[in-house]
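Troubleshooting entry. Yesterday's outputs looked truncated, so today I'm pasting the complete records for two proteins to confirm everything comes through intact. If either block looks cut off, that's the bug. Protein one:
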Amino acid sequence: MKKCFLLCCLVMMAATCFSQLKDTIFFNNGSNLIGKIKKIKLGVLSFDPDDANDITVQLRNLRTLAAVRKVFRVETTDQAVFLGKLFPDTAKGYVQFVHNNDTAGSYYLQNISVMYPYGIAFLQRFTGNVGLGYNYTRSSNFGRLNFDGALNYSSSKLEVSLTGSAIYTSTDSSFSRDNERLTIKNNYYFSPSWFATVFFNYQRNLELSLDRRYQEGFGIGNKFFTTQHVYTWARGGIVFNQEKSTEKITTGTLTEFFGQLEFNFFRFTKPDINLLMAQTVYYSISQNRFRSDGNSKINWEIIKNFKIGLEFYNNYDSNPPVEGSSKLDYGILFNLNYFFY
């Protein structure tokens, strides 16, 4: 009890001291830097030193740190989630986590998977990206534009995302909306790894003779594998579809079961690369119909906040809306992405 009391006193004294300072990182060699901690992502800390350019530091190179400018949201590799501030610990490689002036315990730095400032203001909780790509051949007067974008909102238990993409083709005499997708997804975490999910999708794919599909779904998911460089989650449930073919034939509401798996890999040292692979499968018992939608993306940062992107997408429908039309569609897209925080 006496040791716990003394530890709490030391942490509170450190809190009072560091509240007058900016964030600080302490290296294993005894040096330190003062500035602003921007984020921790899968083993790498992004830091903005005073009077110097931004740097990235692997957590294994730090003795401890002080993240005191504001409240931070912390996710650990054992799937715990905290909101609070971090103060130096006497043990090498550890930090003290403080929430509402109460010490929550000592944590190993390298077990922090994700950490970012938790904006008290509503607008501070948004992140996103937007990307554009275009190719044109003069010999055929054929041009193709692709668009990709995302807007994300996060709080302590809620994640809301709006994502969209489109492929358009233009010639001298025509303009075609070949492929379009818009998704609104809401995940509510009722434990550190389990979440309930509700979403709405809009799809258009002329290669599969689909003029439009509206899709409403709900289910349950789990973020089941997290390390310093990887996190993977899966979800499953039921969706309801309303479809219209390119021949203007509409359906009633079609019910399907779905399962989705998403894998993310991050590397924030040079080169800064992140990889996403996602695949969703659908099955309808009444129609004996199998569908799948998937995409794989890799982004490579060339200058701050700008990344070159390469994406492969695939769509399959065992029973497309128009009999005799193609069952498989796939393609490769290049684009330039801007990420904002």
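Protein two, checking that the full record survives here as well:
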Amino acid sequence: MNFEFPVPIDADLLVIGYGNSLRRDDGVGVRVAEAIETLNLPGVRTLECQLLSPEYADPIARARRVIFVDAAVDRIDGVYLRKLEPGDNSQLMAHAADPRTMLALARDVFGRTPEAWWLTIPAIHLGFGMDYSPEAEAGFHDAVAKIRHMAAGEGVQDTKYCKAVGNLGAVDQAILA
């Protein structure tokens, strides 16, 4: 595509927290984005949503960096921060997309893809309710700390949980496929 007008950058860091806040641990991504918003960190913008959908490609393309924050049932041993690359295809196969598809959509529609990370927090209890499991509660605090460090330009603090998409296990590959 030929873009005559570059997309203006309006955030150094965009934090997108997503999940269902009425399904206990599933809402922890939204809670993280809300907490980051209250910190009023310079250059940081937040979005909260239940699902990643096409309209978020615009703010994604306008950010230098983006962190997608979500609950994960596949890993309960801590917060994981994964570097992301855009998917090969921006076609949505359902009413919601995964982070790699959103990056591909930003690239294909707006001609720009930011540096991106996927931060997942352990989800143990997904029934109806608004309280969190101890694992999700601890993950919430860890996630907020990691994002604060990244917003301050300090980079990834704990590479123990940092994996590139190419190095993900079979469960992660299935989720991102």
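Both blocks look complete. Sanity check on protein two: DSSP finds five helices and six strands in the chain.
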